[in-house]
Design brief:
This protein has seven helices and seven strands. With 210 residues, the chain is α+β, with helices and mostly antiparallel strands. It is elongated, with a radius of gyration of 21 Å.
Length: 210
Amino acid sequence: MLSRNVDGLKKLSKSDPLVVCTSEESGEHVIAGCGELHVEICLKDLRDEYAQCDFVMSDPVVSYRETVSDTSSITCLAKSPNKHNRIYLKAEKMTEELCKAIEDGPMGPKAEAKERGRTLRDKFDFDEAAARKIWAWGPETEGANIMVDTTQGVQYVGEIKEHVNSAFQWTTKEGPLCEENMRACRFNLMDCVLHADSIHRGAGQIMPPT
């Protein structure tokens, strides 16, 4: 019966481009639509036409997005648990036009790097260096949030990139207010002070402060 549900969801998402079907780690299937009536119709079609079996539904919920309203007034400092590393970050709001360009693909991670950098510089007022040093998009590596390395001459910064990006993906997927996805946030890595020994700046030391 579970496989019939999954096959039915695939057919439903193909038949209606406005429907988004996702599967959670818990095994729960989520159907997102344009409103309560739209989702009701989709569930009826799923039950009667595609899956042709009954299933248990929870009450519909509205999916929210968390964001920032303005550029950070201060540079935020966080220290690693061993106190040997410091990370300085600022957040700023991105325009709706840029968010849509990321979500639609032209400014996303799969776009051609040189063309993307040129467009970011000319159309979205990005600094040329910042346009080349976007570390990640998130959540799920393709959302409308970006992590930008704006540091200059910092030792070992390349070695912590993977750990910073992992923390960025985690943070943008579960925002600080109500654990909803974040959107339209640009995080600038302003500076960092890192321990010379790589043992003291592993994932366990870099991810929590980020």
